[in-house]
Fold this protein.
Amino acid sequence: MNQLKIKISENIRVSGNYFRLKFRSEQLSKTARPGQFIELKVTDGLEPLLRKPLGIHRIISPNMVEVLYEVIGKGTEALSKRSPGEVLDVIGPLGNGFDLGSRVEGPGSRVLVAGGIGAAPLVFLAQKLRPLSAKPPEGTIDHRPSTLGRPLVLIGAKTKDALLCEKEFKDLGCNVSIVTEDGSKGHKGFVTDLLKKVLNTQYSILNTIYTCGPKSMLKAVAHISTKYRTPCQLLLEEYMACGVGVCLGCPIKVKTQYPCLAGRQAILNTQYQYKMVCKDGPVFRADEVIWE
């Protein structure tokens, strides 16, 4: 974790209430891992008092970092008005990122499931997962696992106007499939419906599911991963005020196991405990989260 002064290179509206912020930071670009986040002070004054937690969207170059954020309150509204050349105070990288596993792929694949703004931090993950393979033909959707490990990305949104990062994923060579609730683009329904369809195919050998999005979607993906016995990692979206677990403002209930004796046999007794999303996450295994 480092406290840094960064200079804004770009801060523009992408679509609707979504903005893209680019800034120079060689230290962050070299040390950040997919799933980690930064805590950004959006103004030079005391209002708003708390920093904004923002997931790292992608690394542009050895010294350029990009975040994608949605204007939903006073903090992000203030951030959207900051201009290129201005300096911001940033703490990061924070939290524990995704476990990418082995870079050597066997006969399996990885699927990224994104909902809304949850697509933003998964682009950084796709950057790290991308193989040295050719970009797939435009418009093709191949749900079969690839021995080259080309990630399958499922992006869900309410309408086509709310879709994010489709081009970024395709530019990275990912196999992308779109789902909208109103059917305005791609499949009609929920992204979890498409995930079940993928897992129900004869080509359903998956190494890991990675997902980020609304809590209701994460809960559904977690249950699906359990049903199909597929490892799953969740990137939780919570308001993380301090970013280091001090304020105790982002608790999550998780399973915990400890050995005990049952007669003469040692068994694992499962109970629960609370962890902080910012300090212990924001990435958790799906099988450890207790949904309430």
